[in-house]
Amino acid sequence: MGSTGMYRTKGQTNREFFTAECLHTQHQEVLADVTRRIPGRGGEWSNVYYAAVRDNRTAEVFGLIVLFTRVPNPYADINIYYKALHENSGTTAEGVTQEIIDLLTPTEHEFALKWRQDALASIARDNAKPKVKRGDQVKFPHKMRFTNGAEGDTFTFERGSIFTAIDGSRVHIPSWRMLAFALA
Question: CB atoms < 10 A from the CB of 72, how many?
């Protein structure tokens, strides 16, 4: 299974782009969607787009998963690579929302059922994580190293994805809420 590389118009939302590129717009529509970064996964995909898609001919609602990477050069002929997958393809379910799962119609497809179970397990893990507020000490299971020389597994939460390391330097941990962590 390959991927597609193409030019994406500046300002186009993920919903607009992936609806146009991955769906039959005459009879399929996105009911709910979310985009997530894929932290620390490596490989070629840095983002995932999830959507609950209704086929208006059959009333079936299925999960659409699009793995994608944006190319940072705005002058490139190709600035996005993506791979569109159906929920029955057995792909990642990390970061999908309860709203999307609740909209899906029943299925008997083995891989789709497994994907839905994985999605519910991911949602349960996310819901079990502690709520973090400014000034909280957040401990990750593995030591992290940063380009500014800071390293450690425990950081003070500032805001968004900004933390303060033990040595006082500021560090950026993108998509940290998708990682395992605990309050120290």
Answer: 7
What are the residue ranges spanned by the domains of the chain?
4-128, 137-183
Give CA separation, 19 vs 32, 35, 75, in Å: 12, 14, 24
Instruction: Give dist(CA 34, CA 143) in Å, integer.
Output: 29
Work out the burial of residue 113: count CB atoms within 10 Å of its CB; fewer than 13 is exposed, 13-18 middle, 19 or more buried.
middle
Contact predicate 48/95, CB 8 Å: yes
How far is residue 88 from each of residues 109, 113, 115, 116, measured CA to CA in Å?
7, 8, 7, 9
Strand pairing class (137-145; 80-86): unpaired
Q: Which helix (H) or strand (E) holds 157?
A: strand 151-159
- pLDDT reading at 41 higher than 70: no
| pTM, rounded to two decimals | 0.82
Per-residue pLDDT tens over the stretch 110-156: 999 999 999 999 999 989 999 999 999 999 999 999 999 999 999 99
Segments in 8-83 forming alpha helices (H) = 14-22
Residue 37 CA: distances (Å) to CA of 17, 58, 74, 133, 152: 17, 32, 20, 21, 22
Calpha distance 137→153 (Å, rounded): 10
